[in-house]
Amino acid sequence: MEEVENKLNDYKILREGEAEIIMLKKNAVFYNPVQVHNRDMSIAVLRTFIAKRKEEHKAMMDKREKPRNKGCHDRSSSPNGENGSTGQQDEMDAVGEKEINHVADEVEDLHLPKEATKIPLWKVARELKEPTVLEALAASGLRSLRYAREIDGLGKVVALDIDTACVEACKRNIKFNGSSVMSKMEAHLTDARVYMLTHPKEFDVVDIDPYGSPSIFLDSAVQAVADGGLLLCTATDMAVLCGTNGEVCYTKYGSYPVKGKYCHEMALRILLASIESHANRYKRYIVPVLSVFMDFYVRVFVRVFTSAIEIKKTPLKLSYVYQCNSCDSFHLQCLGRTVTKDNSVKYAPGIGPVVPQECSDCGKKYNMGGPIWSAPIHDQDWVISTLMDVKSMKDRYPAYKKITSVLTTISEELHDIPLFFSLHNISSTIKCTSPSAVMFRSAVLNAGYRISSTHVNPLGLKSDAPWDVIWDIMRCWVKNHPIKEQPCDTSGTAILSKSPKLEANFSRAVAALSKAGAKKVNRFLPNPERHWGPKVRAGRKITSKHASLLGPDVINHVMNGAANPEDGNVPMPDKPTPENGENAADHEDEPSTKRQKTDNDELATEP
Ligand SMILES: C[S@@+](CC[C@H](N)C(=O)[O-])C[C@H]1O[C@@H](n2cnc3c(N)ncnc32)[C@H](O)[C@@H]1O
Ligand SMILES: [Zn+2]
């Protein structure tokens, strides 16, 4: 009896959302509580996916029924009635009607996202099956359990892990969550890559949430997603994606990062470019619906389609980045271009370089990065639908505040502008007091350009204004807010040595106050908990070896037995930066009085 009790003492029950898991108190199976943001966001997007999929299917079916309604023949008399037909029978029916030859014409006038129309009508089964989910790297299964319990209209959920303890825990957790979960969820001990390769196009949803980099799973993951399905992918190797190890990033993702304030957005775009590259190998391509940088990781939600024609357009969605190594200016060069000849469209390599050898603003050299995904990283319709849906069921999201703040900020981003700059950084470059965000935004708007915030950084600004306009605005600002004389070899001095061609107008433009500022809504919340961040692998003993990953403070903390003794997971130390805690809206109206960057300061932020 005592033995049983001792055994029970080894376990604890954890609840997140509507799911419960039994955890061994020692660090046997991975669990990171702050990833509730990640799981909540995923649930929100999956709910949107289910709704959109239904809408798309209905529109396709309406379209397919149309010719018949016009009097071809009465389909309802078919022995395979509306509910009884199989996808295969549907295909044969439809092919018989020669619809296959007219797919392109037929779908043209459907009010559907362009991509959904790429699926031939004859391939669309009349009965829409509930979407199936594959969580390839499931650990305790918590994420899958939440999907199975909380998302209505979901089909089978398959959870995989390569680790025996994880799969045992997952199976235990399935039982623990009762019959509704047991009837739709299963767990398998396997290498996810092998499983995905042997189940091509079989899952409507594939979720990849690895330790660190997802790079080794991408090739098999893009093949396991059904046409029009959704791939959800996390990467927590931010140091790699943000440029600490450029060469490692290239080997994992096929792109070079550059150090810039925008590095976390660049991380998203490198990951998207890499997924697209894997997809292209199988005549497939991606359409991002939401891409987020949250807490300490990036997470992308992309749909996967197949089309030999569409994949030729991939180079139009990719760009190299030229980042000046001294000032803030950066430029994008698209990999491809469209050539139209005799009514036919072809795709050719881009013409470059788009920049001279020396930065046209300060005269220094450029670093080159990419290729990155430079097409939109979100679908505004999905973002708004997801946000509205989340707001309509507040109680069902433990991380409601976090995910609504992120989605709201994303909904306000300029979706067609890759990357961003920081007002504080450009002020630092020329060693001036920063204009207030409202004043600067007004000057950009008054000059005839667009400007928005970004969810990635509370101080970031996205704009279609070219760099000479941005610098002209700052030159005009400095005229009225003179600075101390600077050494003649700095990039700031070079920029200010030119006269502005534009007379900046700082008078307040109506649209200048960001919506966050106007509504006084928090867009950037403080860190989720005191010691937060990625956790080390389950089962690993924390030793001084981990100092470079976790920092010496944390190691000392653990060695003294103080860190998170319950589950053995060790958190990252807090980095109190404006990026992770400060609400930019609070400061929009105030010119900065902070000391600006010195010559020795780096342009880049730490990942
Ligand atoms: C970060 S954890 C997953 C966390 C989980 N998705 C969640 O939300 O709680 C990564 C998991 O991937 C598993 N894993 C690593 N390589 C794998 C592979 N090749 N196939 C299947 N699972 C693998 C590990 O055992 C680990 O449990
Ligand atoms: Zn420059």
From TrEMBL:
<keyword id="KW-0479">Metal-binding</keyword>
<dbReference type="GO" id="GO:0160104">
    <property type="term" value="F:tRNA (guanine(26)-N2)-dimethyltransferase activity"/>
</dbReference>
<dbReference type="GO" id="GO:0005634">
    <property type="term" value="C:nucleus"/>
</dbReference>
<feature type="compositionally biased region" description="Basic and acidic residues">
    <location>
        <begin position="56"/>
        <end position="65"/>
    </location>
</feature>
<feature type="region of interest" description="Disordered">
    <location>
        <begin position="557"/>
        <end position="607"/>
    </location>
</feature>
<comment type="similarity">
    <text>Belongs to the class I-like SAM-binding methyltransferase superfamily. Trm1 family.</text>
</comment>
<feature type="compositionally biased region" description="Basic and acidic residues">
    <location>
        <begin position="584"/>
        <end position="600"/>
    </location>
</feature>
<keyword id="KW-0949">S-adenosyl-L-methionine</keyword>
<feature type="region of interest" description="Disordered">
    <location>
        <begin position="56"/>
        <end position="89"/>
    </location>
</feature>
<comment type="function">
    <text>Dimethylates a single guanine residue at position 26 of most tRNAs using S-adenosyl-L-methionine as donor of the methyl groups.</text>
</comment>
<dbReference type="GO" id="GO:0002940">
    <property type="term" value="P:tRNA N2-guanine methylation"/>
</dbReference>
<keyword id="KW-0694">RNA-binding</keyword>
<dbReference type="GO" id="GO:0046872">
    <property type="term" value="F:metal ion binding"/>
</dbReference>
<dbReference type="InterPro" id="IPR002905">
    <property type="entry name" value="Trm1"/>
</dbReference>
<feature type="compositionally biased region" description="Polar residues">
    <location>
        <begin position="77"/>
        <end position="89"/>
    </location>
</feature>
<keyword id="KW-0489">Methyltransferase</keyword>
<keyword id="KW-0819">tRNA processing</keyword>
<dbReference type="Pfam" id="PF02005">
    <property type="entry name" value="TRM"/>
</dbReference>
<keyword id="KW-0820">tRNA-binding</keyword>
<protein>
    <recommendedName>
        <fullName>tRNA (guanine(26)-N(2))-dimethyltransferase</fullName>
        <ecNumber>2.1.1.216</ecNumber>
    </recommendedName>
</protein>
<keyword id="KW-0808">Transferase</keyword>
<dbReference type="GO" id="GO:0000049">
    <property type="term" value="F:tRNA binding"/>
</dbReference>
<keyword id="KW-0862">Zinc</keyword>
